[in-house]
Fold this sequence. Notes:
Blueprint: H1 2-21, E1 35-39, E2 56-60, E3 77-81, H2 83-86, H3 90-99, E4 106-110, H4 116-125, E5 132-136, H5 138-149, H6 164-174, E6 179-183, H7 204-216, E7 221-223, H8 226-232
Parallel strand pairs: 1-2, 1-6, 2-3, 3-4, 4-5, 6-7
Amino acid sequence: MLTALSAARKYIPRRIKYLVRNPTPPSTLAPFAGPVVVLGSAPKSHKPVGLDANYRIISVNASQLALQSWGVDAPDITLMGYNQIEGTNTNAVEVRRVLAGKRTGSLYVLAWRHGRERLEAGLKAFGYDFEEAHIVDRYQRIALLHKVTGRLNLELDAETKCSNGIIAALFALYNGATAVILSGINPHSAGHVYNGVNLTRLHVRMDAEMLARLVGLGYPIYTADPQVSEDIGLPLWQGINQANPESKQE
């Protein structure tokens, strides 16, 4: 009982702090005007049917490696976790190895706390280029999930957080995507396309819950991966005519 009470006492001030701050979700310079592909790093991904210059591509961490086989030079946007810049764990080291010498359009770094100068120095250290860089703090991330799904998730621990892939999908929806096509995002998978160490994925339960919630709310969200469609019930993307302009938009 005391443990539950202590947890509640910690939760309430954080909720009040969030509500008082009233942060704005991260935005693009110009709203999306068509379908957006969100590319994750699950070992299996598929090029969406009909992919052409009318689509925008958001990659997550080092997932842009898969774009080489799609004939795409670089993503329009990359969402990257803060730990990938300086982290010493296996995943962070592998991300930097894969991204060395590559580039993106707009880079959004999630929960970076050390200032822009240190961020840019960190990116320069492994040769990752970008047209513009944005820092997205924790409260903006919380605001994004709240705005799109109506759910206030203060991310009190790893189990209650969404993966960056799901955050990327929410980002696309918030910024006007007419359809969001997930590729290489599978809550049930293990490992990453850019390394062979078969690391266990976190956020499995919350990712599955958020995808089900987005479908239930009527958002135009699809998958390009047949196995994901079969496993979790997301509609399989069949091409641009599948997008419904009357689907829910925020």
